[in-house]
């Protein structure tokens, strides 16, 4: 069971704001190395910001694209954002929702004047407030330390942001413990309140409770869909999610727990743009199966995928047997072999082929076994030799 890390202690908010205003006049001394009154967590963020080559007098916020409205975090946060946003009317404080890469997903700004001000700061959906692009902000600090953060005035790395006071708290996935994003508040210094940090902590917890409820509903939806399909299934049937795999008797003889990650990775990738997909996958024991998948949605999140498995010979009749050369490889294995032979590492090959490092590692072991080679050098020689013969006819 996932155990959340100890929550960082956030100092008194009013003291931070007073210190933040004072820092606005001390920034030149800080950059000259003449001592720093920065809190440790802020100093560490400034160091990372400088390492990224950022300058406080240059403010550039990249546009990463507006998130889809059906994202799990956006859906779970929307009712909380609506309620908190209504309470913020007349306070000069706005609410923002970001993802795990500090991209702004949603916001609630009850005041038109503040909305225009935030637009000038690009604190709007689609823009990314990452530490590597904007420097120290409450969003970036909350993401880096996995805990609530308040960044006031001159504690911001960018000069443009020093008139603002911002608070943020991370939102974690109740199923995996991964940080999904943040709930944040932003206000001009004159409208800031010591209650901002308490409010974002409460809002983040409320969003996590909604995510937990949605996850429980998704698990029930996947189980119910599997049980209904199992009654009519005439062959191997599996239901797979990011956390679990359900199989009927026929599928249990084909796939094991070691295959769950592969099945989930391939199926979820195939189903991103379509509700139904068919593909071939080599399992951990070397067997190839043809898989037909359909998406299962539950509540506000994707519950998983339902997979019909059709074990089949890896190669058609008349094809060369394993060990006879590159023609013995599946299309995926062949692609990996060719990229590795060009000198790319497993990590680089994964990025180039849009696969995970785990998938490339697994397939490379299968390639070595089928081609009876023991090193990347031998694989490269074989690819070059057989490629030359193939081109020579």
Averaged pLDDT = 80
Q: What amount of the residues lies in strands?
A: 15-25%
| Main sheet summary | 5 strands, antiparallel
Helix-and-strand structural type: alpha+beta
Q: Please provide the ordered H/E string of secondary-structure elements.
A: HHHHEEHHEEEHEEHHEEEHHHH
User: Oligomeric state of the chains?
Assistant: single chain
Number of strands: 10
What percentage of residues falls in helices of 4 or more residues?
40-55%
The number of helical elements comes to 13
| Radius of gyration over all CA atoms, rounded | 26 Å
Strand order of the largest sheet: 2-1-5-4-3
> What is the distance, rounded to the nearest whole angstrom, between the alpha carbons of the first and last residues?
58 Å
Low-confidence parts: 1-9, 313-323, 388-393
Judging from the principal axes of the Cα atoms, what is the shape?
flat
Give a quick rundown of the structure.
By secondary structure, the protein is of the alpha+beta class. It has 13 helices and 10 strands.
Written overview of the protein:
Strand 4 (164-172) and strand 5 (179-188) form a beta hairpin. It is flat and about 75 Å long. The protein is an alpha+beta fold. The strands form 2 sheets. The chain has a 5-stranded antiparallel β-sheet with strand order 2-1-5-4-3, sandwiched between helices. The longest helix is centred in the middle third of the chain and has 37 residues, at 196-232. It is built from 13 helices and 10 strands. It has helices at 13-23, 27-31, 40-51, 72-87, 112-120, 138-145, 196-232, 249-252, 260-270, 331-341, 346-353, 357-371, 376-392, and strands at residues 94-99, 104-108, 149-152, 164-172, 179-188, 237-240, 245-247, 276-282, 288-298, 301-312.
